[in-house]
Design brief:
Layout (H helix, E strand, L loop, with lengths): L1 H46 L7 H14 L3 H30 L4 H4 L5 H24 L1 H8 L3 H24 L4 H27 L12 H26 L1 H8 L2 H25 L2 H10 L3 H38 L5
Helix pairs in contact: 1-5, 1-7, 1-9, 1-10, 1-11, 2-3, 2-6, 2-9, 2-12, 3-5, 3-9, 5-8, 6-7, 7-8, 10-11, 11-13, 12-13
Length: about 325
């Protein structure tokens, strides 16, 4: 857990730094309306984060359970069943999206007015959706690593993805690329890093976990569906709570208002970012401890982590309330009030 927290801190630092650099660059390059379009598209896809039906998070619990029992065969059944279930889901969503794409007036949906933004809205959504769908089955890679408490490896690969996204963004801006190309750079680079991570995991680190149709079992699939349903309820609540703001703003006030809201929101998201890298690695540890019935450790660790998170959240939140406006002005200039 300590190694994962440390690597997670590094990964978050790289991700946040890349975000701090990319936000003013993209805001100046795209302008307020097109940047608001980009943020709204991101929110639309984020709302679809529950489309894996909770199976990815269920897999994390399942893998940590199998790890606690030291059962390789059971772990492989879970991984293979999850991979093919998620691949089927991604294909189904892709078919529905492809059929509906031409009938949706994307420019009107996002309420953009400039000619350039109207032309770019549809292709940008298509590229973002492609990256999102590819990420659904490939996402099992990080869940497997975290489930085996190798989250530090997942975080290091995530750092590589953030750096690759920033480099790709700089190249797109340098060559004056379109919004769809910028979307490909920002959304595609992390997926590429995840694919490389998967190749390393299944070819070198844990080759016995390589998904195989012959390892798909009814029992493992039912367990993942049942557990995934519980996580789906949590993901739906999270999507509504944290991803609907930009959609509401875009429909009522337009994409420029989204930009005004999204930048301060990114700043305050630092609070949850900092706390999550400290407590997230404990998730699979709880799963393993439950498999071994070590409930005393679970209670003690939970109380300590809640105390830590509360203290850090109050401290950082207070500082951002006091200095937030000044930070935003230095960060992105006077375009955001």
């Amino acid at each position: 857990a300590f190694l994962t927290s440390t690597a997670s801190g590094l990964s978050r630092a790289v991700s946040v730094s890349a975000g701090l650099i990319s936000v003013p660059l993209t805001l100046r390059y795209l302008g307020t309306e097109r940047y608001g379009l980009w943020m709204t598209i991101s929110s639309v896809i984020a709302v679809l984060g529950f489309s894996d039906l909770g199976i990815n998070n269920g897999l994390l619990n399942a893998v940590s359970r199998a790890h606690g029992k030291d059962d390789r065969e059971l772990a492989r059944q879970y991984v293979s069943s999850a991979f093919f279930l998620l691949t089927s889901i991604a294909i189904a969503i892709g078919i529905v999206f492809a059929a509906a794409y031409r009938w949706i007036p994307w420019a009107s949906f996002f309420r953009v007015q400039s000619t350039q933004a109207m032309a770019e809205a549809g292709p940008a959504v298509a590229i973002f959706m492609g990256c999102f769908l590819l990420n659904i089955p490939v996402g099992i890679v990080t869940r497997v690593q975290v489930g085996y408490q190798d989250g530090f490896a997942a975080n290091l690969w995530s750092s590589a993805g953030s750096l690759l996204a920033l480099i790709s963004l700089l190249l797109v801006i340098h060559f004056r690329g379109s919004l769809p190309l910028l979307v490909l750079a920002m959304a595609g680079a992390p997926v590429l890093a995840l694919l490389l991570n998967g190749a390393a995991l299944f070819a070198i680190q844990r080759p016995w976990l390589l998904p195989s149709w012959s390892c798909v079992t009814t029992g493992a699939s039912k367990y993942l569906w049942r557990l995934g349903g519980l996580f789906l309820a949590l993901q739906l609540a999270t999507a509504i709570s944290f991803s609907s703001d930009n959609l509401v703003l875009a429909q009522i006030l337009g994409p420029k208002a989204v930009a005004q809201y999204a930048v301060p929101c990114k700043l305050f998201s630092l609070v949850s970012t900092v706390t999550s890298f400290a407590v997230s690695p404990l998730w699979p540890a709880y799963g393993e401890a439950m498999a071994k019935r070590d409930y005393s450790w679970i209670r003690k660790t939970l109380c300590r982590s809640l105390t830590l998170v509360t203290g850090v959240s109050i401290s950082l939140g207070t500082l951002l309330v006091i200095f937030g406006s000044r930070i935003i002005h230095v960060w992105v200039g006077s375009s955001i009030h």
